Amino acid sequence: MQGQDGERDRCAARDGGEPPAGAAEPEPRRGRPRSAAAERAILDAVIALLEAGEPLAGLSIERIARTAGVGKATIYRRWSGKEELFVDVVRDMEPTDPPVSGTAGLADLRVMLESMRTRGLAQRSSVLLVNIFAQMKSHPKLWQEYSGTVIAPRRVAMLEAVRRAVAAGELRDDLDVELIDDLFVGPMLVRTVHRPDAPLPDDLVDRVIAALLGGLAPVRV
């Protein structure tokens, strides 16, 4: 019977990611799916280790699993490696990207620019986020993962919004779309990344758009 019980425990751990009876993994809160509880525990474990002063480069899957109270297999079922996991940790700490209509032009662009402003405010208020981004930039593989899975899709969404604005007659159609996008995004990047002491007032996005439309809006005859 003992051998059968052991085999059942091994199968359960392999198939569902649940530890055998008596293992150290904490029970999730009542009513919450175990997979969601495990994922939350893993993200919280990385954050806790970073808050304790552990560098990104020094974190191993074994250490993260032990801190989270899960097995390494539970982590690898969700992330292929540390880079993907760390990117999701940053996503978890940043403000969630707001939804856009997908049909509007300038209105959607404004929503995305405002999201850049709020992310900038969040990074300024979090010493941990500032530290994480500084470390990420010194690890090319990690920065490439973040750039490819987070920054690149945001840029694509903005370019699509610019194209919709051009098609709707909100922006001139004789200019390069990527140049227009850079003109809108540039001031936000300068203020949120390159000038950490620059103010980020509530009306910043509206002021940027108003200033640029003086040269980007079609001439009305």
TrEMBL record:
Residues 1-17 have a biased composition (Basic and acidic residues). The keyword Phosphoprotein does not apply. GO terms for molecular function: DNA-binding transcription factor activity; transcription cis-regulatory region binding. Pfam families: TetR_C_11 (PF16859), TetR_N (PF00440). SUPFAM superfamilies: Homeodomain-like, Tetracyclin repressor-like, C-terminal domain. Residues 36-97 form the HTH tetR-type domain. Residues 60-79 bind DNA. Residues 1-36 are annotated as: Disordered. The keyword Signal does not apply. InterPro entries: Homeodomain-like_sf (IPR009057), HTH-type_TetR-like_transc_reg (IPR050109), HTH_TetR (IPR001647), Tet_transcr_reg_TetR-rel_C_sf (IPR036271), TetR_C (IPR011075). This is TetR/AcrR family transcriptional regulator. Keywords: DNA-binding, Transcription, Transcription regulation. It comes from Streptomyces anulatus (Streptomyces chrysomallus). It comes from the Bacteria.
